[in-house]
UniProtKB/TrEMBL annotation:
Signal sequence coordinates: 1-26
UniProt name for this protein: Cell wall hydrolase
Gene Ontology terms, MF aspect: hydrolase activity
Origin species: Pontibacillus salicampi
UniProt keyword terms in alphabetical order: Hydrolase, Signal
Domain LysM: 29-72
Superkingdom classification of source: Bacteria
SUPFAM superfamilies from the UniProt entry: LysM domain
InterPro entries: Cell_wall_hydrolase_SleB (IPR011105), LysM (IPR018392), LysM_dom_sf (IPR036779), SleB_dom1 (IPR042047)
Length: 193
């Protein structure tokens, strides 16, 4: 019996140790261009479109140089997509599909920003940023529309207006956010940078 408990304990530790990545997104957020590479070949290697890679790096053409560092979009794992979809479900319940995409985009933008943690988990659980984390509604399952919105936000990276914040001014007041530039208004939410 003790042997079975020991084996179960070891297996549990191994499961948790290998289920969560040990590297942060920041270590994977750039690609150093090698001789012979093109935007198209790099994008193909990462499973993204070359137009998205071009947009992420503010390139007006496809010219790149060896040694150049290219920013990559956030490429979340399935577990991270689920976490983000649950946040979107709880945070943007009752909002339009476009609003849900925009909420997911803000989180992805924060991962890329030096002002916030460099992982989806870190951004979502960063202090008192999101009420669903504080009130526990983030633990409820996401609906199909929220899952689809997350996927679209992943593909949308590089094409947005770099929003880092959102809030509903009818429900919350923020002196901090009042000084930020409004990038768009969707439904009841203001999106800002």
């Amino acid at each position: 019996m003790i042997r079975n408990m020991l084996v179960s304990g070891i297996l549990s530790v191994c499961f948790f140790a290998f289920s969560f990545p040990l590297t942060s997104y920041a270590e994977q957020s750039t690609h150093n261009v090698q001789k012979g590479e093109s935007l198209y070949s790099i994008a193909t290697d990462y499973g993204i479109s070359y137009k998205q890679l071009q947009a992420m790096n503010n390139k007006s053409n496809v010219t790149i140089q060896p040694g150049e560092s290219l920013q990559l979009p956030v490429l979340p794992s399935s577990a991270e997509k689920d976490l983000l979809a649950r946040l979107v479900e709880a945070e943007a319940k009752g909002e339009s599909y476009a609003g849900k995409v925009a909420v997911a985009t803000v989180v992805l933008n924060r991962v890329e920003s030096s002002k916030f943690p460099d992982t989806l988990y870190g951004v979502i659980h960063d202090g008192k940023q999101f009420s669903p984390v504080l009130n526990g509604t983030i633990h409820q399952p996401a609906g199909e529309e929220s899952k689809k919105a997350v996927q679209e936000a992943v593909y949308y990276q590089g094409y947005d207006q770099e929003s880092l914040f959102f809030y509903n001014p009818d429900k919350a007041q923020s002196d901090y956010l009042e000084d930020k530039e409004v990038t768009t208004v969707i439904g009841n939410h203001l999106f800002l940078r």
